[in-house]
Prior knowledge:
This protein is an alpha+beta fold. The protein is built from 9 helices and 5 strands, in the order αααααααββαβαββ. The chain is elongated.
Amino acid sequence: xxxxxxxxxxxxxxxxxxxxxxxxxxxxxxxxxxxxxxxxxxxxxxxxxxxxxxxxxxxxxxxxxxxxxxxxxxxxxxxxxxxxxxxxxxxxxxxxxxxxxxxxxxxxxxxxxxxxxxxxxxxxxxxxxxxxxxxxxxxxxxxxxxxxxxxxxxxxxxxxxxxxxxxxxxxxxxxxxxxxxxxxxxxxxxxxxxxxxxxxxxxxxxxxxxxxxxxxxxxxxxxxxxxxxxxxxxx
Length: 235
């Protein structure tokens, strides 16, 4: 006797079209394309014999009234009321939401308003102080001149490093920056800009304008002080 498939039986996520699976969707379309329920499904990985991980994820959201803030307040014991959600999966969800809460707290604390070259120098001290090779960094600012991130871009030798403007602007766009500050160190302690420093600064200032972005400053960092292109009227 031939066994026909049960049309009412729920399919596991692996049986979905690849573009509809939460993990593949995140990889192919980016984080913003994935729903809250799909993100939770990625965390819990599996469902029950009767429900997919996505179905269970929707039930979890329903428990919290589809409110992520309320979900973040639920305990492991409360989450395990959802069918298919044991302690391990509940702990995974609680841990992920706690990480998000901590990141939010750190973001609030670590977003100073950049209003001076001295502040930039202090921010970069942990990264550039006492280095014996040259590094190039970029700071990303929002329209209110608040720091939203910083990124190491390249490293050279004692006398110089090469930086690609395309990499700088790609990173700035990915960080949704409105303004940027360039920083590189001179291990020699010489604060005088080189011809290459002047050329790359000019090129980046002009390139930023095309993207409706502004290079606020370019700082040359040394252990004994710094040179600010903005302070010296060079930007």
